[in-house]
Amino acid sequence: MNIFVFVKRVPDTESKIRINQETGRIVEEGLNFVLNPYDEYAVEEALRLREGKGGKVTIISVGPEEALVVLKKCLAMGADEAVLLKDDTPETYDGLRIAKIIVSAIEKKFPEFDLLLFGKQSMGADNAQVPAMVAELIGLPQVNVVTKLEIEGNKGVAYREIEGALEKASFSLPAVISAQKGLNEPRYETLKGIMAAKRKEIPILALEDLGLKEEELISDLEMVKLEGPPPRQAGQIVQEEPDVAAKKLVQYLHEEAKVI
Amino acid sequence: MILVFIEIREGKIKKFSLEALSEGKRRADEMNTEASAVIVGHNLGSHASELFPYGASKVYILENTLLSQYSASGFSQALFLLAEEVKPEVILFPASSQGKDIAPRLAAKLKVSMASDCTETTIQSGKLQVVRPIFAGKAYAALSFKSSPQIATLRPNVFPLQDPVDKQGEVVKKEVVIAEDQIKGKVIEILREEGAELDITEAEIVVSGGRGMKGPENFDLLRDLIALLPHSAIGASRSAVDAGWMDHQHQVGQTGKTVSPNLYLAFGISGAIQHLAGMSSSKNIVAVNKDPEASIFKVADFGVVGDLFQVIPYLKEELKKALSE
Question: ipTM score of the complex?
Answer without folding.
Answer: 0.96
